[in-house]
Design brief:
Helix content: 40-55%
Order of helices and strands: HEEHHEH
Radius of gyration: 21 Å
Number of domains: 2
Largest sheet: 3 strands, mixed
Structural class: alpha+beta
CATH class of the largest domain: Alpha Beta
Shape: elongated
CATH superfamily of the largest domain: K homology (KH) domain
CATH topology of the largest domain: GMP Synthetase, Chain A, domain 3
Strand content: 15-25%
Strand order of the largest sheet: 1-2-3
Number of helices: 4
Number of strands: 3
């Protein structure tokens, strides 16, 4: 079976994701940035821009974390450049990843529907 070769931009995005996660965890001293998880990174083909998708633990921390990440984007970019072997380090654009929240919401809806369905089946069984 042939293995799918990953493009250089995919490998670059993976490297940026790993490096940024470590930088945010150990190098960022901004108290507004709490438990941030980098979920994925998308790089443009010329590596000039990178979309950083992240999630945050805690309901009210989303806006504060977004501001803190945007504020520290220059520092993170500079530190990222020390570890990457590219001519141009991409501009970092932070985007909140809502997919996890959406997944939890959908799971809760499915559970609620299953619960109602089970009650209706039990009710029908009692009527007979």
């Amino acid at each position: 079976m042939a293995r799918k070769a990953f493009s250089r931009s995919d490998r670059m995005a993976d490297q940026i994701q790993r490096d940024l996660a470590e930088l945010i965890r150990t190098g960022l001293k901004d108290p507004r940035v709490g438990w941030v998880t980098i979920t994925s990174v998308e790089c443009t083909r010329d590596y000039s821009h990178a979309k950083i998708f992240y999630t945050v633990m805690g309901e009210g921390k989303r806006e504060i974390t977004q501001e803190a990440l945007e504020h520290s984007a220059g520092f993170l970019r500079k530190e990222l450049g020390r570890g990457l072997s590219v001519y141009t380090v991409p501009q970092l654009h932070f985007v909140y990843d809502e997919s996890i929240e959406r997944g939890v919401y959908m799971s809760r809806l499915i559970s609620d529907v299953s619960e109602v369905d089970a009650k209706n089946r039990d009710k029908l069984g009692e009527d007979e």
